[in-house]
Write a structure and sequence with these properties.
It contains ten helices and seven strands. The strands form two sheets. The protein has a five-stranded mixed beta sheet with strand order 4-1-5-7-6. Strands 2-3 form a two-stranded antiparallel ribbon.
Length: about 250
């Protein structure tokens, strides 16, 4: 596994649009539509929803499977305002900071080290490596090893006999499980240290993330052509978010 993104929720559009119009006191020109009421059976209604459908107002991607964020409809006038602001740079696109994305991401530690450079506008709660690393037995699926070579003797100068890179990872996993078993049996911290210091950076960690469209803009601009598969897949995910063009500016 390279990267897995799930439990996606997008919210904050109504306040973001209202704030964008504060600059020109033009709230009366807003033509977007949001949830107004909820019926007894749980279905939500829109103001003039069917009229909007007739007028072919752009429907959001948030109706796609796996993304929660409501069926908010951004009108033509608001859409053009937000797009022009987005193209104006960080100072004019401050509204993007008010549209939030929450999601669960499972990715290798080597990718998280790069993700952690984006400190502003992000909140992260991770599975604790220090506290829970010994709670389950390690398996090959706990690591991102899809690019490891499996041919024996494929690396000249390696003194590991006939072991391939994939086999070395498997041996490391066996060593980790041996140290885990010793730690669980004895409680001796010296075995716990073997887990911490031997753990490869390909180990997959799950985190729950909260960030905003402005942070996504920085990530997409800087990482969409990155050599890591994880960043390319992450940027492809960004393009599937509701109204992602405010983030990508349709850059390809």
């Amino acid at each position: 596994m390279s990267i897995k993104i799930e439990n996606i929720e997008v919210y904050g559009w109504e306040a973001a649009i209202r704030g964008a119009r504060n600059l020109k006191n033009s709230w009366q020109d807003s033509d977007s539509h949001f949830y107004e009421s909820e019926s007894s059976d749980g279905d939500r209604d829109f103001r003039n929803y069917h009229t909007l459908r007739k007028e072919k107002v752009r429907l959001p991607v948030s109706e796609a499977e796996g993304v929660s964020g409501g069926k908010n409809l951004i009108g033509r006038e608001d859409y053009m305002l937000l797009m022009n602001m987005s193209k104006g740079g960080p100072e004019e696109s401050k509204w993007r900071r008010m549209v939030h994305v929450q999601m669960d991401i499972t990715a290798p530690l080597y990718w998280w080290k790069e993700f952690d450079t984006y400190k502003v506008g992000t909140v992260s709660n991770s599975c604790s490596t220090m506290r829970t690393i010994h709670e389950k037995e390690f398996t090959f699926e706990d690591f991102s090893g899809e690019h490891l070579l499996s041919e024996a003797g494929c690396l000249e100068g390696f003194n590991g006999g006939s072991s391939s890179p994939a086999e070395v990872l498997k041996m490391t996993i066996s060593m980790l499980n041996a140290a885990r078993a010793a730690f669980l049996e004895t409680g001796d911290k010296k075995y716990w240290w073997q887990l911490i210091q031997l753990l490869p950076s390909s180990y997959n960690q799950r985190r729950t993330i909260d960030l905003n469209y402005e942070t996504l803009r920085s990530q997409y601009r800087e990482r969409r052509n990155h050599k890591l598969d994880e960043w390319r897949k992450y940027c492809a995910f960004i393009k599937e978010l509701p109204y992602s063009e405010f983030v990508t500016l349709r850059e390809e």
